[in-house]
Design brief:
By secondary structure, this protein is mainly alpha-helical. It has helices at residues 3-30, 34-60, 71-85, 90-108, 134-159; strands spanning 111-115, 119-123, 129-133. Strands 1-2-3 form a three-stranded antiparallel sheet. The protein is globular. The protein starts with a helix and ends in a 6-residue tail after the last helix. 31% of the residues are buried.
């Protein structure tokens, strides 16, 4: 099996485990809403590395044409070609886009603040607001978990001695 494919899957799993640990072990102790952003970043990394693994695998076997090495190009091919092929849940794709939007919004937001101990609010220059709270993050984690499970099952099926790719 290809080492790059394995690396992408491994990175997806590590990022998911980090997000899970931060959500259920660290956050309840420190109750710092800024951690919600770190969790969102790890969830996005888990989803995008899982996506990259599948896109890479499909590219390796020439099932998809060459694509640019940027998120949007990979995302479009993944959404159009790979997700249907592997029967990946639509909410994983929507979640990936949603998290990307939240993280991009954060980069453009000069204002961010906490509201209570469980909400992190980001406002851009146009005062467009995005909010992260612990219940939203836990829902994101749940959706990411099912996506990562699916990526791992694809990886295990491909990696099994009886598989031909």
């Amino acid at each position: 099996m290809d080492a790059d494919f394995h690396t992408f899957v491994d990175e997806a799993n590590k990022s998911f485990q980090t997000a899970d640990h931060l959500t259920y072990s660290t956050y309840p102790l420190v109750k710092d809403p800024k951690l919600l952003l770190v969790i969102a970043e790890n969830l996005f990394k888990a989803l995008s590395k899982g996506m990259e693994a599948i896109v890479y695998y499909e590219r390796l076997y020439k099932r998809i044409p060459p694509i640019n090495d940027d998120f949007n190009s990979k995302f479009e091919v993944f959404r159009e070609k790979c997700a249907p092929r592997y029967n990946l849940p639509r909410d994983s794709i929507l979640l990936m886009r949603d998290l990307k939007n939240i993280l991009d919004h954060h980069k453009k937001s000069p204002t961010e603040f906490r509201k209570g101990y469980d909400r992190f609010i980001m406002a851009d220059r146009n005062l467009t607001v995005k909010t992260l709270d612990i219940s939203k993050v836990k829902n994101y984690l749940h959706l990411t978990k099912s996506f990562i499970f699916k990526v791992n099952s694809i990886y295990n099926r491909i990696n099994s001695p009886h598989s031909k790719g």
